């Protein structure tokens, strides 16, 4: 059992950490808000959101606000549990170093 | 300025986190020891160690112990500083979620 085994590969990218981090403390966030908070490109955000969606950690709600399409992200229960476990593992790693 | 800007891309992988984490608390570690601690394959460890070496965060010492080649890794001063900054950024992200 390696010391990094509890670090979840699905969260192994700063953009994914950022997305999860925002969604853990906000009921939902739309594409534009996430993009601004994380300071990333559309393509970058879209691909990492897709990966988290495919892992079942976030869900996506597409709707129209007036005539404008709006994409909203919500963290799933599975995602919450997995992210907490990931943060615990990171915290243990950090504490090894302090 | 995004909330993930201080998270260093070079450490954006659990194997790299693991390598740095081991080298921060040990003066040096050889390939075999790292491989066991992190529970990864030779190829995986070699490619991530190479990336950290190219970033200037670790240095590699190759020598022979008897007739056996031995590869030893050491964290550089730049690496120490960068990794501490990275851990601070991770810690801030974790604290947002607790």
UniProtKB/TrEMBL annotation, chains A, B:
Keywords from the UniProt entry: DNA-binding
InterPro entries registered for this protein in UniProt: WH-like_DNA-bd_sf, WH_DNA-bd_dom, WH_DNA-bd_sf
Domain Winged helix DNA-binding: 15-94
One Pfam family, short name: HTH_34
Lineage: Bacteria, Pseudomonadati, Bacteroidota, Flavobacteriia, Flavobacteriales
Protein name: Winged helix DNA-binding domain-containing protein
Source organism superkingdom: Bacteria
Molecular function terms from GO: DNA binding
């Amino acid at each position: 059992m390696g010391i990094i085994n509890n670090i979840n590969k699905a969260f192994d990218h700063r953009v994914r950490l950022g997305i999860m981090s925002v969604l853990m403390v906000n009921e939902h966030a739309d594409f534009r808000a996430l993009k601004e908070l994380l300071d990333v490109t559309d393509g970058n955000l879209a691909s990492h959101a897709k990966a988290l969606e495919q892992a079942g950690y976030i869900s996506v709600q597409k709707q129209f606000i007036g005539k404008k399409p709006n994409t909203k992200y919500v963290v799933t229960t599975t995602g919450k549990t997995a992210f907490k476990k990931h943060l615990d593992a990171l915290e243990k790693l950090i504490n090894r170093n302090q």
